[in-house]
Amino acid sequence: MASMYRETYSYIDREGNHTSVRLSGRSKEETDEKFQRHVMSEVRKKDVPTVRQFVDAVYRPSFMTGLAATTLANYEQYLRKNILPYMGDMPMDAVNVATLQQFYDWMANGKKHGRMKDLNRNSIARISGLASRIFKVAFEMKIIDDLPFKTTLLRNNGAMGEHHKALPDDEVDRVKRAIPLLKDWRQRLYMALLAYTGMRKEEVLGLRWECVHLAEGYGEVKTVVVFPRNCKAVIKEMPKTPYSQRTFLIPRPLQEMMLPYEKETGFVICGENDKSPASYSTAQRTYQQAFAILGLKGKYNNHDWRATFGTQLKERGLSSAQVADLMGHADTRMVETTYARTRHEGVMKHQKTLEMINSEYRIGSSAAPEKCKKSRSINAF
Fold this sequence. Notes:
This protein is mainly α. 49% of the residues lie in helices and 8% in strands. The protein has 16 helices and seven strands.
């Protein structure tokens, strides 16, 4: 029989008292492991922070600084509207895979729980991605003993949803013809930039006349304007990513609409004066009223125009890499999975090509019977 090893350990328990425990094992390594796993893990539970405490004390100041403005705004929304309301007051080590499944279902069935809407599958995936990173940091810091995110067990029951969708070609044509007729100059320029350039909303609002070169037919994305927590405008000299700083093309219809307002300096969509960007209320009112006048409200959003831009370029023969360059993406992944998904219109544009390939096989074609005759002759042997 193997001899037993015994070790006495002294520690401070959860009530702050000095105490000790004697453990047995086949080696010191085994008793040390027992002490850490069964004794100290219980002691540490006293100091395990809640999810809210960990986010406020550790994750926000250490891992959310330096993020792009739009990414930061999205993360804050995920925390404020979803993660913290559901599990913010729970100790981090109390969150398990069952908790997370209930969290997923709570988001997917939001209306049943008094929320404004049910979240779709894509939204739930993005929110859970942030939550997973928070818990991974806690795990690496040894605040929790295990990661509760078990991807093979968790089910995302959200409805299928389109994060971005391209407008049909006939709708794009209708709107582009109507944009010059908008009476408000901000609405006219805003919608023209949105429809013709594929720029993000914050890029349109941050565009300066110094970066517009109408005679040469191009502009430069260098700054963005965002509204953290829907408040005062913040000018960011760095767009979403380094690749977002790019040249964009200005086609002739857009040149013609911008030319009457061209200036040496200042914001294209300005506020009270050329040197200040549009305020949050002005920006909201500008695009919401324009969408309503153009018959787009409730059907499409700002980013759908970006998806339309990428989709039309891809359907007209540009490679994913070329579309990514024009849209300001680091690589082709977003183009291929999100922004340039094939539409009905895209498939139909290849109809003539397919007809040409298969024209000699039409019924009544002289070539088809001859080939069939040869084929039968070969099969005869």
